[in-house]
Write a structure and sequence with these properties.
226 residues, mainly alpha, 79% helix
């Protein structure tokens, strides 16, 4: 039987999540701007700034999952949510909108400012495709972790997924550096969007869409929250 979404309840849950996360998001955004402010000042500043930027994006992702999903169960907020006239699908829909907005809006801001820094400073524009691929990887990792958290009520498994994606950052850099169709353009004055770079982005977005769809399918099959 089809179910009509409880829009008022969904809005309330979204605003609740936004309210709980607002201070942390502001702090992470300020940190990202600070990291980007000195990536063009020299070689070691670039390494330090980009490393700090990636750490902040990973921290923002993991912190949001902890606040919106893990803490909601640990602090007994979920029983209150269960008392509302909503279904697991309503709950998942509210979490998706709240989580996507809280990560994607700051993430898009960081990507745009990063591109602007590359465009208007001596940093090679050839690094733009690499930066976009890495930011999309963080987004993909975020949504996969979100989907796991929504579908599997296990804090240990959620943390394992977080750590696994964090550990893959180094190998991804190695893979990018060892892929000639990508690495040969890193230090060029113009960004090169060849088939390899575009193909990686397409695969990442396909994974994101499949992950979100699978999570909603699992939620729609649930009769209760537990």
């Amino acid at each position: 039987m089809s179910h009509s979404l409880n829009i008022p309840a969904i809005k309330s849950l979204i605003f609740k999540d936004w309210f709980l996360s607002r201070k942390y998001i502001a702090m992470y955004c300020a940190g990202c701007l600070f990291a980007l402010s000195f990536v063009s000042l020299g070689e070691w500043q670039f390494v330090l700034g980009t490393s700090l930027l990636m750490c902040l994006l990973v921290g923002m992702s993991n912190h949001q999952i902890a606040i919106l999903i893990i803490n909601e169960r640990k602090e007994q907020t979920l029983p209150f949510v269960m008392s509302l006239p909503i279904t697991p699908t309503d709950y998942a829909f509210s979490k998706l909108i709240a989580s996507a907005a809280l990560f994607c809006i700051p993430g898009i801001m960081v990507v745009l400012i990063t591109i602007a820094v590359f465009k208007f400073t001596p940093v090679p524009d050839g690094l733009i495709p690499l930066s976009v691929i890495l930011c999309t990887y963080f987004l993909m990792a975020y949504f996969i972790t979100w989907a796991v958290g929504m579908s599997i009520e296990s804090e240990g498994i959620i943390i394992f997924v977080m750590v696994s994606f964090n550990c893959m950052i180094g190998p991804i850099f190695y893979f990018m550096g060892k892929t000639p169709s990508l690495s040969q353009h890193f230090f060029q004055p113009d960004a090169v969007w060849n088939s390899t770079a575009i193909g990686i982005l397409i695969v990442q977005w396909v994974v994101i869409v499949i992950t979100i769809s699978a999570s909603f399918f699992i939620q729609s099959r649930k009769k209760t929250f537990l």
